[in-house]
Design brief:
Radius of gyration: 18 Å
Shape: globular
Order of helices and strands: HHEEEEEEEEEEEEEE
Structural class: mainly beta
Oligomer: single chain
Length: about 270
């Protein structure tokens, strides 16, 4: 996706029209509201913070297709403030030729015990050697519905305010997402998501996550546009969650990513907003 984006970016720049699709180290089908993955979900789905049982922090890194010049680093931290949830994140990538970064400040609030809404203020910026840079402020919105202990449903809308990058007439290429998870008996969770980027076809992913032991979780899913397989392996040790996040995409090969997360609740989350 990032290789396609970079090509599209340079082509659009040449036509005096800027666009930007910020990516994160957690852009995979496992980062959605579900039991045990609410930390990751809070980066992508506003409203998730209200369901997390304590303070948390997560750091992620990925190098798409082994290309260090495209490596992405991501950090997010959050805390509960009464019924509300607050999060702060930073994401950055690039090398000598190109770079982009994004900061987000998010707030979520439970309208009902099973329904939380969220909003975020985002700053996105990019630079290209020899061309300069540009930045923009935008707003994101989202909602998480938790009708039963086993089920999460969520939607998110990046750049809901239609912000434009610098003096460009093109809005940021924010993504619209929908996701669902269902925790089945036997420690298996089914996950599915649909993502639409303004400049690309919708991408669907679906698969499962299985809890092998209390401290070990593995997952696999398939996705299209582009066609790929994604893999997850997480180990929980004394409140720290170490994860491998990989994907395989045809001729482009493997991408390898890693994350480490901390939860003040020792990895235990509220199953519904208060």
């Amino acid at each position: 996706m990032r290789l396609i984006f970079l090509l599209a970016f340079f082509l659009s720049f040449a036509g005096e029209s800027l666009s930007l699709e910020p990516l994160t180290a957690l852009d995979d089908g496992f980062s959605l509201p579900a039991a045990g993955s609410l930390e990751e979900a809070s980066l992508i789905f506003p409203g998730s913070e209200s369901f997390i049982g304590g303070p948390y922090a997560l750091l992620g890194y990925t190098a798409p297709f082994g290309m260090e010049d495209l490596a992405v680093s991501t950090f997010i931290a959050g805390v509960r403030a009464g019924k509300a949830g607050i999060s702060l994140s930073w994401n950055g990538s690039g090398g000598d030729l190109y770079g982009d970064e994004q900061e987000k400040l998010g707030v979520s609030y439970p309208l009902l015990k099973c329904l939380s809404i969220g909003a975020r203020l985002s700053r996105s910026a990019m630079r290209i050697r020899g061309f300069g840079g540009a930045s923009a402020l935008s707003g994101d919105a989202g909602m998480v519905f938790h009708p039963a202990e086993e089920i999460f449903l969520a939607v998110s809308w990046e750049n809901a305010t239609g912000a434009k990058l610098g003096e460009s007439k093109e809005p940021l290429d924010g993504r619209t997402r929908a996701a669902a998870s269902w925790n089945l008996p036997g420690a298996v969770t089914l996950v599915a998501s649909l993502t639409k980027v303004r400049r690309f076809d919708p991408s669907f992913s679906g698969g499962c996550v299985m809890k092998i032991w209390d401290s070990l979780t593995v997952g696999v899913l398939g996705a299209n546009a582009p066609n790929r397989m994604e893999f997850l392996g997480s180990l929980l040790v004394k409140g720290l969650k170490f994860s491998y996040r990989g994907s395989y995409q045809g001729d482009l090969g493997f991408s390898h990513g890693f994350s480490v997360g901390w939860s003040g609740g020792n990895g235990k989350f509220f199953t519904s907003a208060p």
